[in-house]
């Protein structure tokens, strides 16, 4: 079975067609050189920084990965999963600056964890063969010491699913798996990008699960899935995409983010109804290898019993 046929069976024919159409449009705009705000920033911001002697400071920030521990109190958490540790990586964009990979690997050294999740955007450059990103991703996955699951982001292509899964990154394409510890289980679900591609299907991802018996952790590239997650009783949402702004002005003023959820969902911990969430600032960076007032992060989520 060829890779795209397998992806079609997993995503569904109509969903795959929508995703392919979005990818084709983005590729066409890039090839035609259509200028938008993102391209202006990518070309103009480094020049502005260099003129202002800020570029090297921004690059240092880009490599200043913060390792953060985030406790999450989960309802109905089985005793076997109390203290369960999930490393959360997001928005690696590994072909933007290959020196970043070594920085990321150093940040993971010595960490204790039971599972690794990745919330999309493994490459930066949407066009091209992706070989640089694939090579760096192989290094990352090979260094991880636990099962690795993820979802696609808006910088990723559905035709890459087989490439990543051959490395050991199991992608959840509106799907779920059960993480087992003895007789206890945790539902780990993943949706396709709900923000740019709009190809998420949460009912399909949760089909056949018993969300009363087992808590649910949902992976989504964007936090814009929050309302659907609340409606379907998801316990925890882990997301990325926003980079926490990546480049902010003094005082935390956000220049731009291509995210359609309210701003309170764009960075760190959040809650909506009975659903808790965490939106990573991203481990890497997009467009330009600099950061200001929004440092990159590796997050270790620690599941705890809800009091």
Structure explained in plain terms:
By secondary structure, the chain is an alpha/beta fold. The chain has one domain (3-305): Purple Acid Phosphatase, chain A, domain 2 (4-Layer Sandwich). It contains nine helices and 14 strands. It has helices at 3-11, 13-31, 37-51, 55-62, 99-108, 131-143, 161-167, 202-206, 226-231, and strands at 66-74, 85-89, 115-118, 148-150, 169-171, 175-181, 184-190, 216-219, 236-239, 248-249, 253-254, 268-272, 275-279, 297-305. The strands form three sheets. Strands 1-14-2-3-4-5 form a six-stranded mixed beta sheet. A hairpin with a 3-residue loop joins strand 10 (248-249) and strand 11 (253-254). Helix 1 (3-11) crosses helix 2 (13-31). The longest helix is centred in the first third of the chain and has 19 residues, at 13-31. It is globular and about 55 Å long. The mean pLDDT is 88.
Q: What would you call the structural class?
A: alpha/beta
> Approximately how much beta-strand content do the residues carry?
15-25%
Gross geometry: globular
Largest sheet: 6 strands, mixed
Q: Report the radius of gyration as a whole number of Å.
A: 19 Å
The overall pLDDT average reads 88
**Assigned CATH architecture:** 4-Layer Sandwich
Element-level helix/strand string: HHHHEEHEHEHEEEHEHEEEEEE
Classified in CATH, the superfamily is: Metallo-dependent phosphatases
CATH fold label: Purple Acid Phosphatase, chain A, domain 2
Distance between the termini: 48 Å
Low-confidence region ranges: none
Query: Total domains, how many?
Result: 1
Number of distinct beta strands: 14
Query: How many helical elements?
Result: 9
* Overall CATH class: Alpha Beta
Q: Strand order of the main beta sheet, please?
A: 1-14-2-3-4-5
Helical content class = 25-40%
């Amino acid at each position: 079975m060829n890779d795209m046929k397998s992806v079609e069976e997993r995503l569904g024919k109509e969903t795959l067609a929508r995703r392919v159409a979005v990818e084709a449009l983005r590729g066409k705009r890039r090839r035609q050189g259509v200028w938008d705000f993102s391209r202006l920033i990518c070309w103009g911001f480094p020049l502005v920084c260099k003129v202002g002697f800020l570029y090297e400071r921004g690059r240092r920030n880009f490599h200043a990965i913060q390792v953060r521990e985030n406790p999450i109190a989960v309802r109905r958490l089985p005793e076997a999963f109390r203290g369960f540790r999930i490393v959360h990586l997001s928005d690696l964009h590994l072909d933007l600056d290959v020196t970043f990979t070594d920085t990321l690997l150093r940040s993971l050294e010595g960490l204790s964890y039971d599972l690794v999740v990745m919330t999309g955007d493994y490459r930066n450059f949407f066009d091209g063969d992706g070989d640089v990103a694939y090579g760096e991703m192989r290094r990352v996955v090979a260094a991880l010491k636990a099962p690795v699951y993820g979802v696609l982001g808006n910088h990723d292509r559905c035709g890459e699913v087989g490439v990543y899964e051959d490395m050991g990154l199991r992608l959840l394409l509106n799907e779920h798996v059960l993480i087992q510890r003895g007789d206890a289980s945790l539902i780990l679900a993943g949706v396709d990008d709900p923000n740019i591609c709009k190809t998420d299907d949460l009912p399909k991802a949760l089909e056949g699960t018993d969300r009363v018996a087992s808590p649910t952790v949902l992976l989504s590239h964007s936090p814009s899935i929050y309302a659907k997650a609340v409606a379907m009783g998801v316990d925890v949402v882990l997301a990325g995409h926003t980079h926490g702004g990546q480049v902010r002005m003094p005082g935390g003023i956000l220049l731009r983010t291509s995210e359609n959820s309210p701003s309170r969902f764009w960075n760190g911990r959040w809650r909506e109804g009975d659903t808790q969430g965490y939106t990573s600032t991203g481990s890497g960076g997009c467009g330009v290898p600099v950061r200001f007032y929004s440092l990159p992060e590796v997050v270790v989520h620690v599941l705890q019993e809800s009091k």
